[in-house]
């Protein structure tokens, strides 16, 4: 792909020949005008213009508390959990379905988009944080209480009866904060009619990055997240690198933030899977809701099947809208904070130009257009340059055309659009087997970009400039523009040298990697194991995480989740290797509190490692897909926080059925072990 647009004489523009420039860009300008006109003639499309996620508004300072110059270091928010009525666009019918779903809302009155009958109300607001802040969330559980006998169950890992998903709590996915007390504690339950305030003390050295929040109530997590209860957490950084310390990539990338003042919140791309069903006719992909039917999510069967999302006939939404239109400019560097909050299925995200933009836009307003996605999206790929995953900046920029997003993943990408016209943002597949089958029938359009010529940038563009060269030039210029007072020339030179030498980002990595010597030492020490399995146990199909190698005599290794059992006892201040594997299927491994570095991926049968693991070794993450017949080694440190938390599969219906374990970090005992007791025991 080249940045040469239909303007063979672009160099004349550099020589300030205005008439030549006008002629060169005339064709593209007409494309822009036609695209705008077409949007206005398609009301279904015009209503789906992309909007930035709303920012959660902080609670006002109480009148009884005097103002302080330190108020900025403490923020308090209110989140109301209740049923909300709204509509979600359905591309199968090219109409809006009425829905009634559980949702997070930031006011005690209207839903987030309550005045727009065509807007989904089921995307939670974005929360923007800063290192060193204390952030409080008061959750008001205003969902209705149900009779205890209606929701009673004698098996904590069995699906709940229909409708029994109204207990809740809160998890800050990926934040490096305490798991105990009223911090990121997912082992508590907030009943209907109860409000509770969480308090997160964000460390001053917390990485800047992209995180998210959602409920984590065992047995109800899948149903609540699938209802749309998910929002972005953005930790913004302003720390400049020094000779001895790394800084935040935000100081460079903030120069490319949206012009509307929305900042990082305007870069968020929250992907959601909401498999609502209309009880009156049991919706299938080929059958629409009745006119007055209301889509709901009340029965665990709606998420239980491995292909539940695929069979639902629903479409991935972005920032609360299904198949939105995004107006953008050519020759401009954009950052997207992609957050996959899907309850079940993978999204292999691709950005590709449409050779016939008019045909693509027209398809946005007709029913059942997804069968033509590959035909409509037939141009060149737009390279996605990933700078961070799971909120943690890479040591080098990773280019990709296929971006494998598994449930819980985040991917910060930089990209630019070389030509005016229309671009498809689509999922190569929505299959739940977590691999790319390239099956056209499963390809789904996520959104459409309409790109208008950026005349100033086009005049500066170089002929045959590759996407990589354009990225490098933009980043180089952004670094050079940083003030010397904050970034001395010596450090600036190091950053520029790293960029030139393989797009490296060494001065922005938040965690120190493990050396070869440290890995060798850890391999000779006790390891931890997490092996996913789905098997029959005591006559029941159980979703399990086995904690020991296959030949272990430990009977606990075969148990499904028990909230009263600690499966891994770890010692504060130590480092350790974990081995991850799966005996049955593919499962995204997620562990709370401490992230991990991937240090090895091999096939257990001697075959070729799966393509989506390309470039992952050496990166830091908190969620990682574990594919059958692969062994993955990760290394982690237990830093700062003690207490109990969990690891689990992030296919959320698997977690709810027992594919989870309890982890406990304890103080050292002074003798090389851990002190698991208290009060002298």
From TrEMBL:
<dbReference type="InterPro" id="IPR011706">
    <property type="entry name" value="Cu-oxidase_C"/>
</dbReference>
<dbReference type="InterPro" id="IPR008972">
    <property type="entry name" value="Cupredoxin"/>
</dbReference>
<feature type="signal peptide">
    <location>
        <begin position="1"/>
        <end position="22"/>
    </location>
</feature>
<dbReference type="GO" id="GO:0005507">
    <property type="term" value="F:copper ion binding"/>
</dbReference>
<feature type="domain" description="Plastocyanin-like">
    <location>
        <begin position="558"/>
        <end position="665"/>
    </location>
</feature>
<protein>
    <submittedName>
        <fullName>Multicopper oxidase domain-containing protein</fullName>
    </submittedName>
</protein>
<dbReference type="GO" id="GO:0016491">
    <property type="term" value="F:oxidoreductase activity"/>
</dbReference>
<dbReference type="Pfam" id="PF07732">
    <property type="entry name" value="Cu-oxidase_3"/>
</dbReference>
<keyword id="KW-0732">Signal</keyword>
<dbReference type="GO" id="GO:0042597">
    <property type="term" value="C:periplasmic space"/>
</dbReference>
<dbReference type="Pfam" id="PF07731">
    <property type="entry name" value="Cu-oxidase_2"/>
</dbReference>
<keyword id="KW-0560">Oxidoreductase</keyword>
<keyword id="KW-0479">Metal-binding</keyword>
<dbReference type="InterPro" id="IPR011707">
    <property type="entry name" value="Cu-oxidase-like_N"/>
</dbReference>
<dbReference type="InterPro" id="IPR045087">
    <property type="entry name" value="Cu-oxidase_fam"/>
</dbReference>
<feature type="domain" description="Plastocyanin-like">
    <location>
        <begin position="167"/>
        <end position="237"/>
    </location>
</feature>
<dbReference type="InterPro" id="IPR033138">
    <property type="entry name" value="Cu_oxidase_CS"/>
</dbReference>
<dbReference type="InterPro" id="IPR002355">
    <property type="entry name" value="Cu_oxidase_Cu_BS"/>
</dbReference>
């Amino acid at each position: 792909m080249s940045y040469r647009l239909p303007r063979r004489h672009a160099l004349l523009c550099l020589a300030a020949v205005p008439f030549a420039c006008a002629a060169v860009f005339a064709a593209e300008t007409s494309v822009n005008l036609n695209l705008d006109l077409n949007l206005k003639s398609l009301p279904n499309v015009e209503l789906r213009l992309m909007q930035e996620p709303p920012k959660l508004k902080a609670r006002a300072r109480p009148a009884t508390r005097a103002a302080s110059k330190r108020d900025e270091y403490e923020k308090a928010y209110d989140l109301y959990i209740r049923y909300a009525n709204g509509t979600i666009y359905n591309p199968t019918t090219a109409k809006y379905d009425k829905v009634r779903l559980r949702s997070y809302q930031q006011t005690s009155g209207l839903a987030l988009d309550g005045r727009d009958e065509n807007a989904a109300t089921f995307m939670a607001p974005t929360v923007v944080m800063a290192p060193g802040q204390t952030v409080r969330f008061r959750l008001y559980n205003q969902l209705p209480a149900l009779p205890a006998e209606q929701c009673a169950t004698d098996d904590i890992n069995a699906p709940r009866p229909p409708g029994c998903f109204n207990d809740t709590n809160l998890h800050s996915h990926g934040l490096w904060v305490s798991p105990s007390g009223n911090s990121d504690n997912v082992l508590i339950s907030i009943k209907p009619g109860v409000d509770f305030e969480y308090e997160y003390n964000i460390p001053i050295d917390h990485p800047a990055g992209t995180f998210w929040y959602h409920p984590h109530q065992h047995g109800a997590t899948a149903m609540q997240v699938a209802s749309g209860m998910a929002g972005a957490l953005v930790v913004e950084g302003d720390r400049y690198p020094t000779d001895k310390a790394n800084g935040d990539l935000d100081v460079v990338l903030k120069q490319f933030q949206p012009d509307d003042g929305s900042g990082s919140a305007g870069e968020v791309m929250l992907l959601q899977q909401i498999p609502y069903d209309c009880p009156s006719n049991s919706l299938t992909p080929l059958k629409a809701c009745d006119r007055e039917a209301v889509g709901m999510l009340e029965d665990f069967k709606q998420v239980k099947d491995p292909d539940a999302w695929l069979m639902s006939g629903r479409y991935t939404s972005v920032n609360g809208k299904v198949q939105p239109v995004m107006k953008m400019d050519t020759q401009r560097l954009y950052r997207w904070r992609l957050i996959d909050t899907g309850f079940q299925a993978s999204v292999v995200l691709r950005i590709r130009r449409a050779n016939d933009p008019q045909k693509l836009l027209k398809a946005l307003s007709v029913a059942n257009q997804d069968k033509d996605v590959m035909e409509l999206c037939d141009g060149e790929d737009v390279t996605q340059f990933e700078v961070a995953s799971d909120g943690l900046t890479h040591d080098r920029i990773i280019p990709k055309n296929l971006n494998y997003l598994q449930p819980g993943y985040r991917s910060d990408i930089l990209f630019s659009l070389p030509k005016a016209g229309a671009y498809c943002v689509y999922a190569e597949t929505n299959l739940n087997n977590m691999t790319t089958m390239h099956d056209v029938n499963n390809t789904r359009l996520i959104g459409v970009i309409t790109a208008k010529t950026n005349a100033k940038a086009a005049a500066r563009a170089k002929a045959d400039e590759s996407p990589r060269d354009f990225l490098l030039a933009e980043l180089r210029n952004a670094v050079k523009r940083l003030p010397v007072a904050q970034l001395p020339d010596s450090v600036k030179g190091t950053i520029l040298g790293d960029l030139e030498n393989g797009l490296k980002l060494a001065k922005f990595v938040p965690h120190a990697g493990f050396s070869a010597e440290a890995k060798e030492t850890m391999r000779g020490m006790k390891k931890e194991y997490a092996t996913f399995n789905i098997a029959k146990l005591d006559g029941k199909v159980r979703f399990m995480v086995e904690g020991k190698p296959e030949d272990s005599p430990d009977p606990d290794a075969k148990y499904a989740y028990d909230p009263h059992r600690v499966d891994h006892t770890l010692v504060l201040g130590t480092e350790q290797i974990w081995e991850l594997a799966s005996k049955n299927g593919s499962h995204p491994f997620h562990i709370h509190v401490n992230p991990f570095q991937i240090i090895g991926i091999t096939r257990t049968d001697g075959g070729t490692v799966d393509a989506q693991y390309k470039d992952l070794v050496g990166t830091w993450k908190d969620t990682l897909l574990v594919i059958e017949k692969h062994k993955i080694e990760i290394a982690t440190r237990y830093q700062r926080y003690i207490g109990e938390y969990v690891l689990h599969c992030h296919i959320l219906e698997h977690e709810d059925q027992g594919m989870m374990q309890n982890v406990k970090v304890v103080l050292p005992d002074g003798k090389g072990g851990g002190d698991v007791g208290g009060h002298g025991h």
